[in-house]
């Protein structure tokens, strides 16, 4: 990691479970384990072998300082269904069902941009007792006093500055940043080069397309990107975006109105 400290989500409720959103299925709370088991053999499953998965695997390799053929650890791609190649980019591919059935220690992350798919798979893995692992490029920069939930992916050159709170299973793709005092929900996806300036609140499941730029909010009045909202590539967002709407353009306006 390129910066100083990055806390996990202890500022959340202390309950064994907490809701991702009102009325949704509770997500089991599992503490993040950064290290490798002291003994034995562990499998790191990266769910998703599409573009983002194939971009993320080398980040995981680098983060773990993994050497192919190690006795204690192996890295695999995990995909849904049984119709898959034996290998992708030299890594074995395993079905999710097979991954869940194994009994060695297993760590997982989900490199799938679709929030709802990511959530469904994350819940399945958590309920099976697997440990989420955040994947943070050594070329990412995480500065000061941030609280970041488990299962995050920070691609190379992603940045979080200071005093941001970020939920679980966040994706920050290449060159995206989260600036000071932002509050990012769960299962939020930032495509490459998203500029999320200070004092912005992004709801659960929101998707921000490549190069989206968000106007800074204020301490007493953050700019709000609603739950499940989609911000199109290159949009310049000056005003709040309602939940489950899509906005595009400069200035950003609703796509469907
Ligand atoms: C906004 C978005 C989600 C809309 O997708 P969609 O619902 O499939 O929309 P369509 O492609 O059918 O386009 C609908 C209209 O919106 C316009 N439009 C789509 N995306 C736009 C954008 N980012 N900015 C401006 N206009 C856009 C289209 O030109 C089209 O206009 P028209 O009806 O006048 O022809 C999508 O275009 C987008 O920006 N996705 C983000 C992609 C991305 O960043 N991926 C990262 C991969 S790592």
Task: Describe what you observe in this structure.
- This protein has 257 residues and is of the alpha/beta class.
- The chain folds into two domains: 1-24 and 136-257, UDP N-Acetylglucosamine Acyltransferase, domain 1 (3 Solenoid); 31-133, Rossmann fold.
- It is built from three helices and 28 strands.
- It has helices spanning 51-64, 96-101, 115-127; strands at 6-7, 17-18, 27-28, 42-47, 73-79, 87-88, 91-95, 106-110, 131-132, 135-136, 141-144, 146-148, 153-154, 159-162, 165-166, 171-172, 177-178, 183-184, 189-190, 195-196, 200-202, 207-208, 213-214, 223-225, 230-231, 236-237, 246-248, 253-254.
- A hairpin with a 2-residue loop joins strand 6 (87-88) and strand 7.
- The longest helix has 14 residues, at 51-64.
- The relative contact order is 0.13.
- Coenzyme A (COA) binds next to strand 27.
Show unreliable segments. 1-39
What is the strand tally? 28
Identify the quaternary structure here: single chain
Backbone CA Rg: 18 Å
Determine and state the CATH class of the largest domain. Mainly Beta
CATH fold type of the largest domain: UDP N-Acetylglucosamine Acyltransferase, domain 1
CATH superfamily of the largest domain: Hexapeptide repeat proteins
Bound molecules: coenzyme A
Helix content: 10-25%
In short:
This protein is an alpha/beta fold and 257 residues long. It folds into two domains: 1-24 and 136-257, Hexapeptide repeat proteins (UDP N-Acetylglucosamine Acyltransferase, domain 1); 31-133, Rossmann fold (3-Layer(aba) Sandwich).
């Amino acid at each position: 990691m390129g910066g100083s400290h990055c806390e996990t989500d202890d500022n959340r409720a202390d309950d064994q479970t907490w809701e991702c959103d009102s009325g949704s299925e509770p997500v089991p709370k599992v503490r993040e384990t950064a290290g490798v088991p002291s003994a034995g053999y562990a499998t790191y499953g990266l769910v998703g072998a599409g573009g983002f998965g194939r971009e993320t695997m080398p980040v995981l390799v680098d983060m773990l300082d993994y050497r192919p053929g190690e006795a204690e650890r192996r890295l695999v791609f995990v995909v849904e269904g049984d119709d898959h190649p034996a290998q992708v980019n030299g890594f074995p591919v395993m079905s999710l069902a097979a991954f869940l059935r194994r009994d060695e220690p297993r760590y997982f992350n989900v490199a799938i941009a679709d929030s709802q798919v990511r959530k469904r798979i994350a819940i399945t893995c958590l309920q099976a007792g697997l440990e989420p692992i955040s994947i943070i490029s050594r070329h990412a920069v995480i500065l000061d006093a941030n609280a970041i939930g488990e299962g995050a992916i920070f691609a190379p050159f992603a940045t979080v500055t200071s005093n941001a709170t970020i939920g679980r299973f966040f994706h920050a793709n290449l060159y995206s940043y989260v600036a000071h005092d932002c509050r990012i929900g769960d299962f939020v996806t930032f495509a490459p080069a998203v500029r999320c300036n200070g004092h912005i609140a992004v709801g659960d499941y929101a998707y921000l397309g490549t190069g989206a730029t968000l106007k800074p909010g204020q301490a007493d009045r953050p700019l709000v990107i609603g739950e499940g909202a989609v911000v199109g590539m290159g949009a310049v967002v000056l005003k709040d975006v309602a939940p489950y709407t899509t906005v595009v353009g400069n200035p950003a306006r609703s796509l469907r109105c």
